[in-house]
Design brief:
about 600 residues, alpha/beta, Rossmann fold, Luciferase, domain 3, GMP Synthetase, Chain A, domain 3, 3 domains, eight-stranded mixed beta sheet, seven-stranded mixed beta sheet, 30 strands, about 25% strand, globular, disordered N terminus
Length: about 600
């Protein structure tokens, strides 16, 4: 270890030591979290519903859910949840049955998922950005007994209505307070009908165990179409313990503003479980808006913020808002806050606590920043390893015996999580997809480790820092983009022989922007950019539409016909490096990048 690294670790260790006394007042919560972590096992009969009920009994008249100008106390939201649960029972929903839900951010998504949790049902949280074949695939993957469609998203449903096997599941509409519920033949309104059911706790005649599935959360993964990752009661309880009781530690006076989509784990598991654990309030925002942010924080007197790193970049890049000074926001929880803007963000907006974390919908490993240390995603109580990885060869580095090698402190490597009885890998609904994420015989014969597909830095003292995402997925606008899925769509466009999709970095932007390298069948034929954009806009969610386009005469592959993307990523959108013309999506159209435009992109003139 270098002298500089040694000094850095000493400073970090001192910082860690100064944080420990501040945890004393929250010791009861932390001890409770440790109790849950070390006593709850897959066969335990503890569930999400039971933990929510504890908060209802403890904070009955405290505000729980806030949406626009409406507010529900813990008692009121529980009555709503119970009516929904009793309605589900009446129509035959039982343990193990799946209900697919397509709703934007609104209280119904919380009430429905908790109602199903109480009776052993499974909520498949459909991504509202998905359309056409992708949405159809996600629904069919879940094999739902019931499909609930928000009246604000009926257009999504009507696109695939004829292709859905309606005999396999019932479909209902969920009304929206500001959107007229359309009349669709054969569909009735579910939540309206639920009002006639009793608000008493649902009675079931079977046991629900911690290992039982409670949600499906979809992930792009690396194999094309979305996969449904299984969230068990046990995984949710571990999130409740790790985030709600240990790291974020909200109180009944806290109000957590969440503009993140609730079909993702950050909002549904991390933020929502943290609110329930602390008896706090959750403020639902339909989607993130820089324009609305500080007005909302002031209006709701929000003390907390659920974030992804891109949001922080947007807020930091805007002019000073009159309401950002002396604001009520003191804490935030999320992931992807870049180290280079971490302190700038905290200082400008007077944020006291950044609870950065690391987790994935399907993974068995999580890190959380318990000690509020800058520029780290924290530490993990699970057994993890950071192993050497060769990015050029796109493979792990093995020793002479064929085992993987751990990196040293301050080095970067691939993050793995050991699979054990206490920290199982729940995986996906498709078993073959689950097996593809497991590495076996990693350090000894017979061991098994979950491959996160992410590069992290070993910071020492069990703390880590996120560096990059590997494989055929990159993150943009807070979403995981599957390159294989996007390539499959683009290859359907006229005169395209083959294409490669990958993520490239834009200075001062979080994540990686989509870029596509296109090989034309007829090289001399003019490419129709307007028709191309109209096509992909219809077929792809907004975050998956490529920002940059380049053209090549051939695609380089390895001897096993894997696409060579390393060089393409390095060249990015710099036409002086590609040797070919590059186009950028600027002012609602693809525009040829010139020297001036390239300078402006690098200087942050354009927002993508």
């Amino acid at each position: 270890m270098s002298q500089h690294s040694s000094r850095k670790n000493t400073v970090q260790l001192f910082e860690l030591a100064t944080k420990i006394p501040g945890l004393a007042k929250d010791l009861p919560k932390i001890l409770t979290a440790l109790y849950y972590n070390y006593t709850v096992n897959p066969t335990s009969d503890i569930t999400i519903g039971q933990l929510f009920q504890k908060s209802v009994l403890k904070y009955p008249e405290r505000p729980c859910v806030i949406y626009h100008d409406q507010e529900w106390t813990y008692r009121e939201i529980n009555l709503w949840i119970n009516r929904l649960a009793n309605h589900f029972i009446k129509i035959g929903i039982k343990k193990g049955d799946v209900v697919a839900v397509l709703l934007e951010n609104r209280p119904e998504i919380l009430a429905i998922s908790l109602a199903l949790a109480k009776i052993g049902g499974i909520t498949a949280l459909l991504n509202t950005s998905q359309r056409n074949q992708t949405l159809l695939h996600s629904i069919q993957l879940a094999k739902p007994k019931l499909l609930l469609i928000g009246s604000e998203l009926t257009a999504h449903y009507l696109e695939i209505k004829e292709e859905l096997n309606n005999n396999a599941c019932q479909t209902y509409l969920i009304e929206h307070s500001t959107v007229n519920t359309p009349k669709i033949k054969g569909l009735s309104v579910f939540d309206t009908n639920s009002k006639k059911f009793a608000g008493t706790e649902p009675i079931i005649h079977y046991h629900i165990n911690a290992k039982d599935a409670v949600m499906y959360i979809y992930t792009s993964g690396t194999t094309g179409l979305p996969k449904a990752s299984i969230i068990s009661h046990l995984r949710w309880i571990k999130g409740y313990s790790a985030f709600g009781l240990t790291s974020f530690r909200l109180t009944p006076e806290d109000r957590l503003y969440v503009p993140l989509p609730f079909y993702h784990a950050t909002a549904m598991i991390v933020c929502w479980s943290s609110v329930i654990a602390g008896g706090a309030s959750i403020i639902l925002k339909n989607k993130f808006s820089v324009k609305d942010f500080w007005n909302d924080i002031d209006y709701y007197q929000a003390t907390g913020f659920g974030y992804v790193g891109e949001m922080c970049v947007y807020l930091l890049n805007t002019e000073i808002h009159p309401k950002e000074k002396n604001n009520t926001l003191v804490k935030m929880i999320g992931n992807g806050l870049r180290p280079e803007i971490w302190k700038k963000f905290k200082d400008r907006f007077s944020v006291e606590q950044v609870c950065e974390f690391y987790a994935s919908s399907e993974g068995n490993i999580a890190f959380f920043n318990v000690f509020n240390i800058d520029e780290t995603m924290g530490f993990s109580i699970t057994n993890f390893a950071i192993v050497a990885y060769d990015q050029e060869k796109e493979d792990t580095v093995k020793d002479k015996k064929g085992y993987l090698q751990k990196v040293n402190t301050n080095e970067v490597g691939l993050l793995l999580g050991e699979i054990t009885d206490r920290y199982p890998f729940d995986g996906y609904t498709e078993k073959e997809k689950s097996e593809s994420k497991i590495l076996r015989n990693v350090f000894k014969n017979g061991d098994a480790w979950f491959n996160t597909g992410d590069l992290v830095r070993d910071m020492g003292y069990l703390h880590t820092q996120f560096v990059d995402r590997l494989g055929d997925t990159f993150r943009w606008k807070g979403e995981n983009v599957s390159t294989i899925e996007v390539e499959g769509i683009i290859n359907q466009f006229e005169n395209i022989e083959e294409c490669m999709v990958y993520g490239v970095e834009i200075p001062n932007c979080n994540g990686r922007a989509g870029m596509v390298n296109i090989i034309l069948k007829e090289q001399k034929q003019k490419f129709n950019f307007e028709a191309f954009y109209a096509f992909i806009r219809k077929e792809l969610p907004p975050y998956a539409i490529p920002i940059f386009i380049r053209f090549s005469s051939a695609i380089e592959t390895t001897t096993t016909f894997k696409h060579q993307k390393v060089k393409l990523k390095q060249e990015g959108f710099d036409y002086t490096l590609t040797g070919n013309k590059v186009y950028a999506f600027i002012d609602k159209k693809y525009t040829l990048i010139t020297k001036k435009i390239l300078q402006d992109i690098n200087n942050g003139v354009y927002r993508f």
